[in-house]
Amino acid sequence: MRDNSDDYRSLFLAKVPMMDVRAPVEFGKGAFPGVINRPLMNDEERRLVGTCYKERGQEAAIALGHKLVNGELKAARIAAWQAFAEAHPDGYLYCFRGGLRSQLVQQWLAEAGVEYPRVIGGYKAMRRFLIDTLDEAVRDCPLHLVAGLTGTGKTEIITALDNSLDLEGHAHHRGSSFGRHATPQPTQIDFENRLAIEVLQVRAQGAGSLVLEDEGRMVGSCSVPLELYRTMQTAPLVWLEDSLDNRVTRILGDYVIDMHAEFVTQHPHDAELAFEAFAEYLLGSLLRIRKRLGPEHFQTLDELMRQALEEQRRSGDVQAHRGWIEGLLRDYYDPMYAYQRGAKEERIVFAGERDAVIGYLREAALSS
Fold first, then answer.
1. Where is the Rhodanese domain positioned along the sequence (predicted)?
2. What is the chain's mean pLDDT, rounded?
3. Whether residue 110 is found in the same domain as residue 237
4. Which of 180, 151, 355 is nearest to 253 (CA)?
5. Which domain, by its residues, includes 28?
6. The domain spanning residue 104 has which CATH number?
7. What's the sign of the alpha-carbon dihedral 97, 103, 104, 108?
8. Residues annotated as catalytic (active site), given as ranges
9. What pLDDT digit, counting tens, does each position of 210-255 carry?
10. Is 159 exposed, middle or buried (0-12, 13-18, 19+ CB in 10 A)?
11. The dihedral of CA 257, 34, 213, 333: what is its sign?
12. Phi, psi of 83 (to 5 degrees)
């Protein structure tokens, strides 16, 4: 059998397949990208064993665990672990601390003829490693932030660079009142784990500095880790510029065309239900900023949006959406960002359009 491992860096960088044998409730609170949950105990079994441990001690708890997971149930779980091991001969298994549960799974697999290694320290040690990885990067790597008006394509800059971190991608949210997707955001722990793994990968490729989009503390429901956020508040800014027409086109693609497609994917056999969910997303997003828009601006944009949705429903044409998008940019987002730029003016080290900004940031990376 391959040796058990505590080389967390190699496990994450090589994207080694891993099987998490914690209970589903533990897995749901936080896990690592691509990991498969094949629990030793389900949530109720874990609860009963935990209660027994507190009341009667470890030996009684272990005995209860063997009683609960026995016979056909035990055979079914071993079969699931065997299937994972056969599909991923280079993989590992782990539990919360790398203790009793993962060792028991190893033992039962071995009795079934399968030798399979575990991660020493388990989920807790790997999670600690990722937190430390992120903290170390914040401490050691100079940051540049990409800022600019809504719709200038800041995410496109992040995607084009080798030393960037995609906060919005990991949070599965575009960071605005219209920023949610058709599928839910990750848990806070999953967001942090994904971000830390990207940090690990970027630094392993030789990056000495990092580029992020200028974000608030919250990206939807996900909170930017505190030390990273604090460092972002003093980092130099690169201001991305683009024309209003290009920005409207980009937002039309992101918030209308792509979002409608997401809802269609969620409801592939019911086009009407997909469109209703999409319309509810748009109208609800506008409603959330009603107070900040003011009653007159809100009413105007709401009417334009409803007309555009009706035209899209009738003919499939999305161009009428440009009306409310332009109004929203001109009357709401642009004044807000102009104010923010004024407050951050002294931190802006470069301003320009897409290619110029990418060129500047690549040069900055080379000199870091």
1. 12-135
2. 95
3. no
4. 151
5. 8-127
6. 3.40.250.10
7. positive
8. 95
9. 999 999 999 999 999 999 999 999 999 999 999 999 999 999 999 9
10. exposed
11. positive
12. -60, -40
Domain boundary among 96, 127, 158: 127
What is the sign, positive or negative, of the torsion defined by CA atoms of 124, 128, 131, 137? negative
Q: Are 214 and 149 contained in the same domain? A: yes
233: nearest Cα among 212, 254, 219: 212
Asked whether residue 30 falls in the same domain as residue 160, the answer is no
Whether the model clears a pTM of 0.85, i.e. scores above it, the answer is yes
Residues 307 and 194 grouped into a single domain: yes
**Domains contained in the chain, number:** 2
Estimate the crossing angle of helix 271-288 against helix 259-266, to 10 degrees. 130
CA distance 352 to 368: 21
Tokens 């839910």 belong to 184
- 196-218 burial: b if 16+ Cβ within 10 Å, else e: bbbbbebbeeebebbbbbbbeee
Contact (Cβ atoms closer than 8 angstroms) between residue 238 and residue 171: no
Q: Which of 290, 295, 293, 324 is nearest to 309 (CA)?
A: 324
- 283 is a domain residue: yes
Take residue 22 and report the two structure tokens written for it.
């914690």
- Both tokens assigned to 275: 């469109």
